């Protein structure tokens, strides 16, 4: 039976990629280990090796094709005695081939789906028909974007890069430093092109030395420069947390206002997909605990751009928490010369009257999907995207709670002393009389992140939990 | 005393990891009369200031931690004499001497120690946390070793701006065992940053002697893996420190990258006010005080060369005591910070 060669997942979060080149032609003999094609992922161009041997019977996806979903058959390999005529004889060729180990559950499975249904091969695919199709939700217009502004579909990755490039053009004191930010073009391609435009003086590759370069960045900021320090992931910033907190956050206070640290610490935060306990942790609550820091955690590309620009201009240390899974997602970004958003202001992502769902960062993906489902049940939910965790925009939350009288908070971080816990406590103190139900907080489970696909899925929040919480607070 | 002073030069020797080509240990150059008097006055101010701080601590005017610099005065004084305008300094928590060397106001420093509104940090920093952008003093840091990465960052800013300034980054023999010191060494050498790492080896990391805490007790070697040359300097002789400072600042200004100066020094007091210092003998301390004291060395030379007589030195001492008395008076009587200060300077 001919073997289908499937589009491989070549990074933990890859959902699709481009077939940039075929290195074998139809009819060529292929041995296991031969490089047969080049695939461009969201991060890099990778070579694809054959796992099985045989003859390349047919190329199903021509080179230059973009946006090929993971697990799509891209070629067919013929084994001994088979010919091109055998292709398509069986309803389904044996689905195996390149990079099995990686592609199986290589991405985080869709949170909308419940456990048993999602076989690893379904990873990344749209929710199944069991979820009622809802009309596309219109996000509330951001009050900071002038009406009628032309919008451009942009990935979060591009938005972050554009924000840095624009600010570097604007201010010669802004520079970016971190591991692989320059010649490699960014471990997640966020700094792509910056070295070419700004040169090695302003785009600085550091050794693997988080504690040291975080301190170097803070020292440079104390001397008046405006560093953007990229952590390859915020998990690695644990090595540097002393400088973030003791050196960056506290100096302004300790110096009686004489000297501060205008610095941005940015990078991917929280769980990506299948990278296990040490690489899957949300630091929103950690940094939100610290006076002297601002903590930003955007969901959309527009917010990523407008808030990163604001963070770079801010005279204080700003923790800018990104998410690897969101990097490749596209959102409308206003086509403005200088789009800067206010730090500390939440955005009403969708207005509603029955319940308030507060979330931030990737937590928003659960809130948005749950909202669609709830609409099908006749529940009109308001979604607030915090965007900034510190300072926290309680005015917007409380105004909404006064209207809906119900509150659910959604985040991926650990449950104890979570951002949601803090919000619940403040709302119960400031708007107790307006609450018609206890505040429910949805968070990640109180366990280190497991590796196994099914366990990881269980450890993260899911749409069902959000829907369930909303039903509980609305007594449905 | 004079004899003791003359022994000092022998302590200075070149460091040799083989990479120090072109760098030989400087011989202490005799000071002019003006230099001797300047050094004497600067060191005396630190000595008298610290004695007064110790006194005020005992009286309950100063709280918390208070780490005195008595005995180590030559290290900051000699280095300061080698600086040009715009050169920066950063250190850890034994920092009053560094602030006075950088000419921060004695009143401001003392009032910060007593936690008053006229303190350099308006009473919000205390003994370990004072800063002055104007005087290029960047603190005052309480986490052992943190200032080494920060100082490397200050030097990074100098290189970024292409100016001619250098950064003096001070740390102790204890901090020299922190990991981030070596992370910083690596980057400083890789990027040829104009930073002088000054290791004040006062022989004890709090209560642990260098031989009990350090596998390599020659701290001038500590940069060997990063191709940073180092020199051991007699940190009790202000002339030796100045000579090393001249060499090091020139090295950095020439774009040769970082340099390590191990200052062999000694603190007479405990690690902090609450340290009984039982880890060393009274005789050891007494021997240093009577044979190597940095201030007495200068005094002996001044008298020996007849550049000053006892009366003149007494008058100078009185002048310094008056400055310190004024600072102490101010620090005891100045008001505490306004309660509203609790909520200021958190974010801009």
From TrEMBL, chain A:
UniProt keyword annotation of Oxidoreductase present: yes
The UniProt record lists the keyword tRNA-binding: no
Ranges of compositional bias, category Low complexity: 126-142
GO terms assigned for molecular function: pyruvate dehydrogenase (acetyl-transferring) activity
Cofactor: (R)-lipoate; thiamine diphosphate
CDD domains linked: lipoyl_domain (cd06849), TPP_PYR_E1-PDHc-beta_like (cd07036)
InterPro entries reported for this sequence: 2-oxoA_DH_lipoyl-BS, Biotin_lipoyl, PDHB_mito-type, Single_hybrid_motif, THDP-binding, Transketo_C/PFOR_II, Transketolase-like_Pyr-bd, Transketolase_C
Keywords per UniProt: Lipoyl, Oxidoreductase, Pyruvate, Thiamine pyrophosphate
Gene3D superfamilies membership: 2.40.50.100, 3.40.50.920, 3.40.50.970
Source organism superkingdom: Bacteria
TM helices/strands, residue ranges: none
Stretches assigned to the Lipoyl-binding domain: 2-78
Region (Disordered): 88-142
EC number assigned by the record: 1.2.4.1
Reactions this protein catalyses: N(6)-[(R)-lipoyl]-L-lysyl-[protein] + pyruvate + H(+) = N(6)-[(R)-S(8)-acetyldihydrolipoyl]-L-lysyl-[protein] + CO2
Broadest EC class assigned to this enzyme: oxidoreductase
Entries under SMART domains matching the protein: Transket_pyr
Assembly description: Heterodimer of an alpha and a beta chain.
Function: The pyruvate dehydrogenase complex catalyzes the overall conversion of pyruvate to acetyl-CoA and CO2.
Protein name per the record: Pyruvate dehydrogenase E1 component subunit beta
Organism: Mesorhizobium ventifaucium
Gene: pdhB
UniProtKB/TrEMBL annotation, chain B:
Keyword Oxidoreductase in record: yes
GO molecular function: pyruvate dehydrogenase (acetyl-transferring) activity
Reactions catalysed: N(6)-[(R)-lipoyl]-L-lysyl-[protein] + pyruvate + H(+) = N(6)-[(R)-S(8)-acetyldihydrolipoyl]-L-lysyl-[protein] + CO2
Cofactor dependency: thiamine diphosphate
Alphabetized UniProt keyword annotations: Oxidoreductase, Pyruvate, Thiamine pyrophosphate
Domain of life: Bacteria
Protein name per UniProt: Pyruvate dehydrogenase E1 component subunit alpha
UniProt source species: Mesorhizobium ventifaucium
Lineage: Bacteria, Pseudomonadati, Pseudomonadota, Alphaproteobacteria, Hyphomicrobiales
Gene: pdhA
């Amino acid at each position: 039976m001919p073997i289908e060669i499937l589009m491989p997942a070549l990074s933990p979060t890859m959902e699709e990629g481009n077939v940039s080149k075929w290195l074998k032609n139809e009819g060529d003999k292929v041995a296991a280990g031969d490089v047969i094609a080049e695939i461009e992922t969201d991060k890099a161009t990778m070579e694809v090796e054959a796992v099985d041997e045989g003859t390349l019977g047919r190329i199903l996806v021509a080179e230059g094709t973009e946006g090929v979903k993971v697990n799509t058959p891209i070629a067919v390999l013929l084994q001994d005695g088979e010919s091109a005529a055998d292709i398509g004889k069986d309803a389904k060729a044996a689905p195996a081939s390149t990079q099995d180990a990686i592609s199986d559950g290589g991405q985080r499975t869709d949170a909308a789906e419940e456990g048993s249904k999602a076989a690893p091969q379904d990873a990344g695919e749209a929710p199944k028909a069991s979820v009622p199709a809802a009309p596309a939700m219109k996000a509330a217009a951001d009050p900071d974007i002038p009406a009628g502004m032309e919008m451009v579909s942009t990935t979060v990755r591009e938005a972050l890069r554009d924000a840095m490039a624009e600010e570097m053009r604007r201010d010669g004191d802004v520079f970016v430093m971190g591991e692989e930010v320059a010649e490699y073009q960014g471990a997640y391609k966020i700094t792509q092109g910056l070295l070419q435009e700004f040169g090695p003086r302003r785009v600085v590759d550091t050794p693997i030395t988080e504690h040291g370069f975080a301190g170097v960045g803070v020292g440079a900021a104390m001397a008046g420069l405006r560093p953007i320090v990229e952590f390859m992931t915020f998990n690695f910033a644990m090595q540097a947390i002393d400088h973030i907190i003791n050196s960056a956050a506290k100096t302004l206070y300790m110096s009686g206002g004489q000297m501060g640290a205008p610095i941005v610490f940015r990078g991917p935060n929280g769980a990506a997909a299948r990278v296990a306990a040490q690489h899957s942790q949300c630091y929103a609550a950690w940094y939100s605990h610290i006076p002297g820091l601002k903590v930003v955690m955007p969901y959309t590309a527009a917010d990523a751009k407008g808030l990163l620009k604001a963070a770079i201009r801010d005279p204080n240390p700003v923790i800018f928490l990104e998410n690897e899974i969101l990097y490749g997602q596209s959102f409308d970004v206003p086509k403005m010369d200088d789009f800067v958003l206010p730090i500390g202001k939440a955005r009403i992502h969708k207005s509603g009257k029955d319940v308030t769902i507060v979330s931030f960062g990737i937590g928003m993906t659960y809130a948005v999907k749950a909202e669609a489902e709830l609409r099908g049940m006749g529940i009109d939910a308001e979604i607030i995207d915090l965007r900034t965790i510190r300072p926290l925009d309680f005015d917007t939350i409380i105004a909404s709670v006064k209207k809906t009288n119900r509150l659910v908070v959604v985040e991926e971080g650990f449950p104890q002393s979570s951002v949601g816990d803090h919000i619940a406590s403040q709302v119960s103190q400031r708007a107790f009389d307006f609450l018609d139900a206890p505040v429910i907080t949805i968070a990640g489970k109180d366990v280190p992140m497991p590796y196994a696909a099914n366990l990881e899925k269980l450890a993260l929040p899911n749409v069902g939990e959000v829907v369930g919480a909303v039903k509980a607070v609305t007594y449905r | 005393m004079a004899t003791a002073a003359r022994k000092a030069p022998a302590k200075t020797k070149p460091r040799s990891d083989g990479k120090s080509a072109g760098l030989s240990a400087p011989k202490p150059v005799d000071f002019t009369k003006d230099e001797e008097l300047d050094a004497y006055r600067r060191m005396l101010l630190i000595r008298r200031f610290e004695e007064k701080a110790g006194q005020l601590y005992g009286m309950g005017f100063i709280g918390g931690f208070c780490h005195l610099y008595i005995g180590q005065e030559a290290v900051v004084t000699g280095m300061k004499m080698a600086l040009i305008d715009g050169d920066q300094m950063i250190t850890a928590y034994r920092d009053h001497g560094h602030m006075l060397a950088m000419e921060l106001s004695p009143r401001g420093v003392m009032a910060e120690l007593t936690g008053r509104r006229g303190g350099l940090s308006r009473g919000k920093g205390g003994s370990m946390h004072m800063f002055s952008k104007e005087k290029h003093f960047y603190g005052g840091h309480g986490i052992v070793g943190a200032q080494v990465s920060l100082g490397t960052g200050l030097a990074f800013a100098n290189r970024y701006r292409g100016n001619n300034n250098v950064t003096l980054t001070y740390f102790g023999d204890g901090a020299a065992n922190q990991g981030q010191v070596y992370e910083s060494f690596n980057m400083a050498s890789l990027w040829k940053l104009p930073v002088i790492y000054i290791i004040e080896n006062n022989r004890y990391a709090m209560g642990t002697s260098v031989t009990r805490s350090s596998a390599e007790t020659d701290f001038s070697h500590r940069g060997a893996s990063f191709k940073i040359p180092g020199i051991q300097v007699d940190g009790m002789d202000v002339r030796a420190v100045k000579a090393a400072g001249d060499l090091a600042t020139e090295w950095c200004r020439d774009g040769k990258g970082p340099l390590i100066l191990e200052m062999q020094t000694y603190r007479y007091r405990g690690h902090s006010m609450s340290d009984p210092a039982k880890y060393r003998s009274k005789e050891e301390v007494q021997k240093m005080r009577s044979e190597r004291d940095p201030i007495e060395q200068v005094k002996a030379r001044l008298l020996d060369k007849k550049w000053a007589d006892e009366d003149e030195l007494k008058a100078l001492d009185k002048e310094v005591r008056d400055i310190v008395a004024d600072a102490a008076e101010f620090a005891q009587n100045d008001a505490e910070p306004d309660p509203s200060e609790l909520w200021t300077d958190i974010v801009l």
